[in-house]
Structures are given as structure tokens and as C-alpha cells.
């Protein structure tokens, strides 16, 4: 580091780790979590889109879609950057990724925290009854989402200012460092960030959901709706509890690195790696918790699977019918061609008796034994013999 700067932590994953095991094991773990989490969150988004298309949208459904989309961003943008860093053991993604990697991750974590807080104010407007669909107010949802994302993107902006790309020989390192003039700003920022996007949202969300449970008024006319409300509140509390526990190592190590008294008191590399794995694990388990505890979404998934299976069977049946039509058409064409060939052969074929007759008529040479008028030939031969018989007596009696 420079003489007038102080090293704080590595950004985008720990670099310069020793050992070949960490080079392979940690990227494998992060890749597995990312792959499973991306698939699960995509499934949740597809089911929610199917719910929106079926005219069953509500404020709470939109908030769940926002949570799933945020987890998808964390697993598809932040986790791969850490995976590459642990595998290369240096920073290879350039200066822009170095300056924004921590900002993107903290912004996504802030979106999750603020969204969970906003769901407690949505009054659980799940469409459990037909008249509940009228409670969906698009304007309020758009304003809430715009406010959540604006605050989440602005809150961790100092991460961009503190990140630096350092060159040491032939390698590059992405670090967070302090100059002499920015130490006070870092001290304030290191307290406000975890307090604003972790501690306060968790406390307010938990209190709000517990309050909503007590505000549910028992009614004998609609017991199914009340049980559904209790299940929704318990689901939100479970998501908050899991997210809080899995995010605790990350924020403890993050604050520890910025408030350590000396280099000997800094957290170990194992704790830092474990904290980052827990961050991505919280995004990976969200779809499992949601599909397990939220019955309407699970029912919508079943309906979607049934619809896709029905369409696939109809498509196969249509293909079979089309293939059968084509085969029958080909067979009909071949049958017609065969019949036409046989008809043409039959029309041109000569019977054996007629063929013999015409072959005899074409023969112009007529044999004597087959002459139809033998007496004419006999008279002609007698006429030719008469002069010879009259000459013979004259030769015997000359004058």
C-alpha cells in the first residue's frame, strides 16, 4: 500500500490465498450454491409471472418477486466474481468491476432488507378471496419499489470511493483502503451501513409482522382465510430469521475489519470465507423456504406444471394426428397409383386368342395345304395339261 493509505480489506473475495485446496474447493462450493439458487429463483419468478397472468396479482406477490429478482442478481453477478477471484487468487476483472463489486452486493442486500420491511406494511394482501384482488394498487407498488431501489443504491455509494485497484508486480489486487483524510468518513460509514441495511430493517420487520399477527381478528365466518394469514406471517418471520442468521457473519466480519485495533486482531481468512458463503447461501435457500411454507405459491406451481403437461400432451396428440394424416395420404396416393398402373396395363393387354389370330393374319405366305380354295388351283392345273395330251397322238401318227 502507499505510504499515506491504510489497507482495510480485500474487495470481491480474498486474494493471495495460499494452498491449492482453497483454489478448487471454494469456487466449487460457490458455483454449486449459485447454480442451485439461480435455478430456484428462476422457478419462483416463472410461477409468480404465471400468477400475475392469471389476474391474481397483489402487493405481497410483487414484493416476493422483487426479493427473488434481487437474489437472482446476487447469485448471477456477485457470486461469479468471487468464484473467479478465489480460483485466480488475484483480481482479473478490471477496474470497473473492482470499484463496483462491493457496491452492487451491498445494494442488493439493502434491497432485500427494505423489501422485507415493506412487506410488513402490505397488510398481507394475498388473493385468498376474490374480493381481495381489488386491493392491489399498482401506483402504490410502483412508488414503493422505486423508493426501495433508490435508497438501496444510494446507501452504499461510499464503497465505490474506498475501492482501489492496486498493481503489485505482475498481479492486480482489488482492495479497500483509507487515506489520511478519509478515516473519519470510513468510521461513520462503517457504523451507518450495517445499522441502516441490517439491524434496523430486521428489528422493524420482525416487530411489524408480529404486530400483524396480533391484529388479525378471529372470525368464525372465514376460518380458512385467517389460517392463511397466520401462515403468511409465519413464512415472513421465517424468511427474516434465516436471512438474519446467515447475514450475521458477513456484517460481524465487515465491522471487525474496519474497527480492528491492530493487524493481529483482524478476523481470520476462514471466517471471511465462511461469511461470504453464508451470504450466497441466504439467497440460495430463499426459493426453498418460499415454496415450502407458502401454500398458494406451491399450488400455483402445481397448476402450472399441470398446464404445461396438458399442453405437451395436446401437442403430442396433434403431432400424432398430423403424422397419421400424412401417412394415410401417402398410402392413398400409392394405392391410386397402383390402381391406375393396373388399369393401364389391362387396357393395353391383348388376349391370347386374338394375338394368335392377328399373328396369322400378318403372315402373308399361305401354305398350299391351308389354301381356302383348293379347287381353283386344281382346274388351273388341268387346263395347263390339256395341250400336252393333244400333242402326244400327233407325234405318234405323223402325216
Based on secondary structure, the structural category is: mainly alpha
Q: Which strand order does the major sheet show?
A: 1-3-2
Low-confidence spans: pLDDT under 50, at least 5 residues? 124-134, 388-392
Between the first and last Cα atoms, what is the distance in angstroms?
A: 173 Å
What is the CA-atom radius of gyration, in angstroms? 48 Å
C-alpha geometry: globular
- The helix tally amounts to 11
Strand content: 5-15%
Biggest beta-sheet profile: 3 strands, antiparallel
Structure summary, number of beta strands:
3
Listing every helix as H and every strand as E from the N terminus to the C terminus, the arrangement reads EHHHHHEEHHHHHH
The level of helicity is over 70%
Mean pLDDT: 77
Description:
The protein is mainly alpha-helical and 399 residues long. Helix content is 74%, strand content 5%. The protein is built from 11 helices and 3 strands; from the N terminus they run βαααααββαααααα. The chain has helices spanning 20-53, 59-88, 94-119, 138-154, 158-162, 183-215, 223-258, 269-293, 295-348, 352-362, 374-396; strands at residues 5-10, 163-168, 171-179. It has a 3-stranded antiparallel beta sheet with strand order 1-3-2. β2 and β3 (171-179) form a beta hairpin. α1 (20-53) packs across α9, α2 (59-88) runs antiparallel to α3 (94-119) and α7 packs antiparallel against α8. It is globular and about 95 Å long.
Amino acid at each position: 500500500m502507499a505510504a499515506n493509505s491504510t489497507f482495510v480489506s480485500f474487495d470481491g473475495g480474498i486474494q493471495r490465498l495460499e494452498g491449492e485446496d482453497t483454489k478448487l474447493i471454494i469456487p466449487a462450493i460457490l458455483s454449486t450454491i449459485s447454480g442451485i439458487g439461480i435455478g430456484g429463483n428462476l422457478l419462483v419468478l416463472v410461477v409468480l409471472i404465471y400468477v400475475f397472468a392469471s389476474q391474481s396479482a397483489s402487493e405481497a406477490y410483487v414484493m416476493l418477486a422483487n426479493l427473488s429478482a434481487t437474489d437472482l442478481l446476487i447469485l448471477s453477478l456477485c457470486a461469479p466474481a468471487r468464484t473467479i477471484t478465489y480460483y485466480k487468487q488475484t483480481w482479473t476483472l478490471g477496474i470497473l468491476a473492482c470499484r463496483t463489486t462491493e457496491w452492487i452486493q451491498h445494494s442488493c442486500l439493502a434491497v432485500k432488507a427494505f423489501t422485507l420491511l415493506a412487506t410488513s406494511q402490505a397488510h398481507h394482501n394475498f388473493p385468498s378471496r376474490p374480493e381481495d384482488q381489488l386491493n392491489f394498487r399498482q401506483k402504490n407498488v410502483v412508488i414503493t419499489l422505486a423508493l426501495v431501489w433508490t435508497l438501496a443504491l444510494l446507501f452504499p455509494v461510499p464503497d465505490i470511493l474506498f475501492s482501489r485497484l492496486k498493481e503489485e508486480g505482475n498481479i492486480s489486487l482489488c482492495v479497500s483502503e483509507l487515506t489520511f483524510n478519509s478515516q473519519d468518513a470510513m468510521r461513520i460509514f462503517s457504523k451507518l451501513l450495517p445499522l441502516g441495511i441490517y439491524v434496523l430493517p430486521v428489528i422493524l420487520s420482525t416487530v411489524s409482522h408480529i404486530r400483524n399477527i396480533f391484529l388479525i381478528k378471529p372470525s368464525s365466518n372465514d376460518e380458512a382465510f385467517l389460517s392463511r394469514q397466520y401462515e403468511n406471517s409465519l413464512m415472513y418471520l421465517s424468511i427474516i430469521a434465516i436471512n438474519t442468521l446467515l447475514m450475521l457473519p458477513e456484517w460481524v466480519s465487515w465491522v471487525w475489519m474496519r474497527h480492528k485495533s491492530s493487524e493481529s486482531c483482524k478476523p481470520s481468512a476462514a471466517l471471511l470465507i465462511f461469511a461470504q458463503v453464508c451470504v450466497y447461501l441466504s439467497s440460495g435457500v430463499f426459493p426453498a423456504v418460499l415454496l415450502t411454507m407458502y401454500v398458494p405459491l406451491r399450488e400455483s406451481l402445481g397448476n402450472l406444471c399441470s398446464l404445461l403437461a396438458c399442453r405437451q400432451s395436446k401437442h403430442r396428440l396433434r403431432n400424432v394426428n398430423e403424422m397419421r394424416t400424412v401417412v394415410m395420404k401417402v398410402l392413398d396416393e400409392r394405392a391410386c397409383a397402383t390402381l391406375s398402373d393396373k388399369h393401364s396395363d389391362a387396357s393395353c393387354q391383348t388376349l391370347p386368342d386374338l394375338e394368335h389370330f392377328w399373328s396369322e393374319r400378318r403372315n402373308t405366305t399361305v401354305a398350299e395345304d391351308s389354301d381356302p380354295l383348293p379347287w381353283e388351283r386344281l382346274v388351273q392345273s388341268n387346263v395347263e395339261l390339256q395341250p400336252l395330251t393333244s400333242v402326244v397322238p400327233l407325234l405318234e401318227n405323223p402325216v
